[in-house]
Design brief:
Helix Hairpins, 2 domains, two-stranded antiparallel ribbon, 5% strand, DNA-J related protein
């Protein structure tokens, strides 16, 4: 029989306290996120817009984020998407659904839900984000995940609406014919948005998100 030591009890207490704190945060985020989504209506908002709203004076639920540092961005991104998937499950009970992607978060009646979703990939993403233990991923694991992505392991192919929105974010009027054109447009926009030229790290993050969507689209 395993005997519990003082140190193991302390460790369990700390884990319990951390998860209780996280759950409390999620409950606040569920209320605020649903409010913001309903306020935006069918146009929805981006992940970045939602982060800004939750940082704002009304809610003050998120602190400042350095969008260029993955180890600082990941906990905020994860907690937000955990909340979004929880909210989507709740909304299903009222015949509503939530379209989830970094570039567009939209609350819709179930009847208006597009038929282009990929159940297998959705299940994997949902399982990942609903596992709160993933919030505590180490900096090394976060970096490995980022390295795997840039090495050519992007998420599943986005739908055409998300791809078109990403192209618009990078300054295109329509989807370019080649990924080479996307990379050229991305470089131009990144140079323009650099903080040294009057841009901001938030704008750079939005461009990075758009580029990642198009990278998956052309993969």
């Amino acid at each position: 029989m395993h005997i519990m030591t003082d140190s193991s009890i302390t460790s369990l207490d700390k884990d319990k306290a951390r998860h209780q704190w996280l759950e409390q945060q999620v409950q606040h985020l569920l209320i605020a996120t649903e409010h913001e989504l309903r306020a935006r209506g069918p146009l929805g908002l981006s992940e970045l817009d939602l982060i800004r709203a939750l940082q704002g004076e009304r809610w003050q639920l998120l602190g400042e984020v350095n969008f260029t540092e993955p180890d600082q961005l990941y906990p905020v991104h994860f907690l937000l998407f955990h909340t979004l998937y929880r909210l989507r499950d709740q909304l299903a009970e009222t015949n509503e659904t939530l379209l989830i992607s970094p570039l567009r978060l939209t609350l819709l009646p179930v009847a208006q839900r597009p038929e282009t979703t990929l159940p297998a990939s959705e299940d994997k993403l949902r399982a990942f984000y609903l596992d709160l233990s993933q919030y505590f991923m180490s900096n090394g694991d976060i970096q490995d995940m980022m390295d795997n992505f840039w090495a050519g392991l992007p998420p599943e192919r986005p739908d055409m609406d998300d791809a078109a929105l990403a192209a618009e974010t990078l300054g295109f009027e329509a989807l370019p014919e080649t990924f080479t054109a996307v990379k050229q447009g991305f470089r131009r926009q990144i140079m323009r948005a650099h903080p040294d030229r009057g841009g901001s790290t938030e704008e750079v993050q939005k461009l990075n998100e758009a580029f990642s969507v198009l990278k998956a689209h052309y993969a």
